[in-house]
Amino acid sequence: MHISEGVLSYKILCGGALLSGVSTWIGLKKLDLEKTPRVAVFTSGFFVASLIHVPIGPSSAHLILNGLLGLFLGWVAFPAILVGLILQAVMFQFGGITTLGVNTFNMAFPAVICFYVFRRWIINNNRMTSSVSAFLCGALAVMLSAILVSISLALTGMHFLNMAKLIILAHIPIMVIEGLITAITFQFLKRVRPEILEVLYEGV
User: Do residues 50 and 68 touch, judged by C-beta distance below 8 A?
Assistant: First the structure.
């Protein structure tokens, strides 16, 4: 899911940087300093999960956990994912500095979308309904990210079109895995740390 340096056009890079900058500012405005340790834990999970990746041309396939971050962090998923990507780019040369904006938006925006789409269903008292909703939240976030990566590549040049299609196909099994991880993690934390779900109830 990381797009490497020197691949995207400057228009896509600038657009991604602008969108991520504004969205990260919104996320920081919503960040309660008392919850910073919680955000750090989810950022660490994202950082570790996406270290193991399979290269696919100018991008890669790997676990993202962006649906999970969106579920528990909402808009704060933007600064959380940005920090994780900066560390990966600096320490392991995954992605790159110039592509930080695009990569952050491609992974964090679907997390926010899924947060708002599924939040009412996830807080449902019916265990089956909440579990299925959490699964769909994790799975759809990955698919939306793969689509955004594909669009980023396709807008840069038609020679990336076939690669863009391959990226979407490669993430289908990852969708299922992430959906299961999100559903299991949600039910576990709901049972042992229900206060961590408070972001889901804000404004509902």
Answer: no
Q: Is the pLDDT of residue 162 over 80?
A: no
Contact 21, 106 (CB under 8 A): no
Joined tokens for residue 17: 């940087």
- Number of compact structural domains in the chain: 1
**Is residue 142 a contact partner of residue 182, using CB atoms and an 8 Å limit?**
no
Establish if 1 belongs to a structural domain. Answer: no
Q: Give the integer Cα–Cα distance in Å for 152 and 116.
A: 24
Looking at the domain assignment, is residue 3 inside a domain?
no
DSSP string, 135-174: HHHHHHHHHHHHHHHHHHHHHH-GGGHHHHHHHHHHTHHH
d(CA 133, CA 51): 27
For residue 107, give the CATH number of its domain. 1.10.1760.20
Q: What's the whole-model pTM score? A: 0.86
